[in-house]
Amino acid sequence: MTKKGLEEQLASLAKEELVQLLAGLAEQYDEVNKDLSLRFVETGSKESLKQYKAIIKASIKQYSDRGFVFYRNVYRALTGARKVMEAADAATAKGQHLAAAEIVLCVLHEMCDLLQKSDDSGGDVGGMIKEGLRHLLTSAEQGGGVDTKIRASLFAMTLKEAKHSNWDGWNEWRLSLMRTASLWMVSPKEKDQWWSQLDAFEAEEQTKEYRSSFFTEEASQLRYEVLARFDGPEQANRYMEEHLEIKAFRDIAIEKAILEERYGDALSLIEQGELGDRERRHWGLVSHWEKKRAIIYEATGDREALKALAKKYTLEGEYEFFLKLKEATDALEWEASYEGLLDEIEEAARSDWEAGSLYKKLIIEEKRNDRLLRYVEKNPHLLTHYYVHLVDSHPEELHMLFVKQITQEAKDSENRKEYRKVCDIIRHLIKAGGREHAEGLIQSLREAYKKRAALLDELDKIKLN
Fold it and tell me: Could you tell me the pLDDT band of residue 171, with boundaries at 50, 70 and 90?
């Protein structure tokens, strides 16, 4: 029956018949029961939160095995939570921000409990938590017209939630709640409460034996945003300048100095960043600051400094810096030095896969097949990936490389999976125009490994034509 036809049939029923039908379906089907229960929950009451909690727990219990939800059942165990989140969405759409936040927090508490009692390898429970946090944040971002008293309640509620032990160890989620709280606050008193709590969280983070800079970086950016809103851009900028150890702040300061053509100040900021992070052995950040030097060198026309920097990162496999190096080098000098540069990149590729990627990109783009052949010969595992570039220019040498690799692979293989790999390489040899070599190889392998029935079976599957 079509939806329209079903609606017509239901419309023809008397009220008593419709009630009996729905009651019967609710008794027979748990999902119908949940949907109807949600429909008649009075959003905003204490009783409603108990009902929402019961709905979430019922789904989890249904798909639990002795109190634990296994991977295969996690998504279905979240059925109740998803339905309750729909109720939160509906409350927000009606402007019931306080009720919506209470519903979302109900979901979040149950999901945090479930994280400890489930195999969330698929990320479904974590995803539900992120959805709830995103709902709270979006409501705060769009809540400019919310009544002051309700804003105060939402601020207090969210700040209290951020303190909950559920978020211990989950810095990203706790900071999301602090960001949400910051968007609801309007009074200096609330700002002071929020600031003190963020300081407390950061102090606690500093006591941990294993900690990253993530919390401090994110917390500092939150403080900057709050200062800009409450105290104005001048105060916010002063805070930023006093905390240049924060990467985002130093980046802003460098970009501002470059924009204002204060290149000496920009270079000084870069050097300070390099020095500090070198002492802390933060090598990724050292590279980050060092690369920013290129902007200064380009703007000031310091070609020699730019060439030295660009060559360093070219040998680490960065194509962007290869282009900078080429652009900064005179045409005649480039022509005279380019072969030597390729040799250096090839040498670097022995211990750096990114340099290897750059080397292959360059010689393929420039059709340097002599170099590609030599590189593949040194790295036979790459043969099946790059032989297509060598078929026309070096067919015989290519075929000999195939023969050598296939012979060695066959010698080292011990099971059917490895035999299939050998035969796949033979098929590539045939595609490369080496059918005669393939025929000879197949015959020699048959004779050499007569007792390897699985290998002989796989060889029989190769089509030479």
Answer: very high
Entry pTM: 0.75
- Go through 339-353 and write b for each residue having 16 or more CB atoms within 10 A of its CB, e for each that does not: eebbebbbebbeebe
Digit-coded pLDDT (tens) for 394-432: 999 999 999 999 999 999 999 999 999 999 999 999 999
With tokens 């009630």, the residue in question is 19
The runs of H, that is alpha helices, within 329-394 are 331-348, 353-365, 369-378, 383-386
Cβ neighbours of residue 25 closer than 8 Å, sequence gap 6 or more: 32
Using alpha carbons, list the distances in angstroms from residue 261 to 233, 254, 266, 267.
22, 10, 9, 11
Amino acid, res. 436 = E
User: Taking 60 as the threshold, does the pLDDT of residue 19 lie above it?
Assistant: no
Q: How far apart are CA 436 and CA 337, in angstroms?
A: 42
Scored b (16 or more CB within 10 A) or e, 37-50 reads bbeebebeeeebbe
Is pLDDT of 374 > 60? Answer: yes
Name which of 36, 34, 38 is nearest 22 in CA terms.
Answer: 36
Q: What is the DSSP string of 9-46?
A: HHHTS-HHHHHHHHHHHHHH-HHHHHHHHHHT--TTSH
Calpha distance 437→154 (Å, rounded): 77
DSSP codes joined into one string, 176-205: HHHHHHHHH--SHHHHHHHHHHHHHHHHHH
The residues, any chain, with a CB within 8 Å of residue 313's CB and separated by 6 or more, are 291, 320, 321
Cα 168 from Cα 162, distance rounded (Å): 9
CA distance 310 to 179: 40
Given this model, what pLDDT does residue 143 score?
A: 86
